[in-house]
Amino acid sequence: MNSPKPSIQDFTQEELLEYVKPAFRIKQIYNWVYHKYVDSFEEMKNLPKAMQQQLHETFIINPLKIAKVQKSMDGSKKYLFELHDGHTIEAVLLLMKPKQYHEDGSIKHHERYTVCISSQVGCKVGCAFCLTAKGGFVRNLTAGEIVAQLLLIKKDNAIEANRRLNIVYMGMGEPLDNLENVVKAIQIFSTQDGMDIAPNRQTISTSGLSSKIEKLGKLDLGINLAISLHAVDDALRQKLMPINKAYNIASIIDVVRHFPINSRKRVMFEYLVIKDINDGLDAAKKLLKLLDGIKAKVNLIYFNPYENTEFKRPNEADMVAFQEYLTKRGLLCTIRESKGLDISAACGQLREEEKRDV
Ligand code: SAH
Ligand code: SF4
Fold this sequence. Notes:
Blueprint: H1 13-16, H2 23-35, H3 49-58, E1 65-71, E2 77-82, E3 88-97, E4 100-101, E5 107-109, E6 112-116, E7 120-122, H4 131-134, E8 137-140, H5 143-156, E9 165-169, H6 179-190, E10 202-206, H7 210-219, E11 224-228, H8 234-240, H9 249-257, E12 267-273, H10 281-290, E13 296-302, H11 316-328, E14 333-335, H12 349-357
């Protein structure tokens, strides 16, 4: 397919100045796109007709189409999006807390959502346990393709423009391998006239590309960092995550020590627990030592099995014992609720199902 026109969602307000003047018109466009969720430039009624036409000739609005939605029992929803070149990516709307009412029927608090979005089609990192890795790497997403995942999910669920929500870059792909577009997406998401989601509500999850973590740190965006650690010694980590040959555990820990983190926040270390591989207390003991002196929290993740994988989901008792070992010794540790497990929410799984169906 021919490369289409760029999406308006690829552009920061500053970049749009090259196409649209005066600047207040850009605020109006942002308002139509990110607050009113319009699909066409003709709907932007307060813009001059000639400007609507010029925008229509230069840009598209949505670079993605919703291809499939799966609803989970717990209120979470998984989206499969189709890109202009026919490739597909996933994003998940996670309902962290349902809406609550006072006794008189008035709203006590609205739903709390976290949206998990993708940064690449496929992934180069090739982790042994990850379904996204199985299909290899196809391409980076543009900033607009990253931004549109959330915009379309908000629209599809009629989530008001100003509703607070969190973003995690934990879908398909390695965000730091597509740093430029991810950084731009972070900026577009946080634009006040747009979605207004501050960087401290956004979390990048990385397999540990130390040099890129350092680069990200230097940008000092105020973003949260999550490290997919998954193993405490290099030999095992190398088997699970070949990237460990280039960036070993020590290099990651070193770079994290220097990462600028908001004083009220912690760096999250994700630890994917796989039965009989890394679920023992010996690992918990080493992890405690490794993170000594870092403002860290650990998030234990159940390995989510899929067809033809040698790896197994861990026992709940082992997860709890691992968690208790750490928390009793003062290291904050949570077990990730397997939200949307019934809709196979771990990365890459919906896309694989879809491929099998056709
Ligand atoms: N590439 C980045 C972000 C995307 S992966 C990273 O690796 O951090 C997001 C998370 O999903 C990672 O922590 C990854 O280890 C985890 N994951 C991958 N496959 C999984 C599976 N089968 N079950 C549970 N979590 C999985
Ligand atoms: Fe890539 Fe993350 Fe999957 Fe590893 S776990 S292959 S880094 S998406």
